[in-house]
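note to self — DONT lose this again. spent like an hour looking for the file last time. sequence + predicted structure for the chain T wanted, 313 res
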Amino acid sequence: MRRRLLLASGLAAPFIARAARADTIVLKMGVLKLIHSITPYFYEKFTPDGYRFEILPFESPTEGKNAVVTKSVDFGTFGVAAGILGSAAHEPVTVIGSSCNKGMAVVVGKTSDIASLKDLRGKRVAIWPGSTQEVFILERLRMEGMSIKDITPVRVSFSEMHAALARGDVDAYVGAEPGPGVSVSTGVGRVLEYPYSTPMGSLNMILATHHDTTESRPDACKIIVDVQRKASTYAMANPSAMVDMTVAKLGQKREAVEVSVPNVELNWRMTPEMMTQTRIYARQMLELKQIRALPDFDVFLDPKFSDEVAKQA
C-alpha cells in the first residue's frame, strides 16, 4: 500500500508543480478545424517560459472572428474575408500576422463531365458564406464572364463538403484542405482548379486580435507572432510532422492529409505583398457588394509586431 501511495504521489507531482505556477500567463488561441490552422498545435514546442497557450477550435471563419471581437479568445487564425467583413462593419479586429496561404480548391466529382469553371453554369456548388473561398470563387467566376447567378450556391460547412459531394447533394464545392485531399484520396472527387490566378494570389488565413490588445498587451502580440514564426517554419520544414499533427488533431485519414499538405503554405509575416493583396481583396469584396465600405486599414492592418520579429529573427 505504501509503495502504491508513493508511486501515485510521484506521478502527481509534475501536475501539482505546474498547477502551482500561478504566474503563468495563459493565452487563448482560436483556430479553425482545418489544416490551415494546424500551426498553433505546434506552439508548445516554442512557447517561452511563463506562458501557456490554450487552443480553442471553431467550425467557421465567422465564429473564429467573432471570438476575437468578443475577446472570448486573445488571438485567432481565420480567413482574411471574415476579418475584412468584421473590420468593414467597424468591429475592432486587427491583423498582426499572416497564418496560411493556399489551402483552397474547387472540387468536382471524379467522373463528372465538368472540365472547366465555365461548366459550373447551372450546377449546385457548395460554398461557405463569408469565407475566403467565397471571395475567390466569385472573382474567378467574374474572370470567366459569370456571376453567382450562373450557379446554384449551396450553404455547406467546410467539414461537410466532401460528404455532400459523395452523396450527390452538390456537383462541386469550393473547399478548404484537407477536404479536397479527402475527396481526391478516396476517389470521390478531383481538383477542377486551384483558384490562385486572381490578383489576390494565394492569400488565405490571417493571425488577428482585438484592436485593444495591440495597445494594452503589445508584449503578448509580439510573443505570439514570434511563436507563429517558429512553429510555421518548423511545420513547413517537417511535412511529416504536419501530417502527423493534422491526423491527430483533426481525425483525418493520413492518405488524405498527405494529398493536402503540398497545397498548404503555413507562414507568419505581414509582407508588403500580403498587405497589398489584402487591400485588393477588400476592394473586390466592395465591388461584389459583400461589404458597404472599405475597412480602416490603419486599424485593420498592424504590421509592427511582424516587422519587429523579422528584425530580430
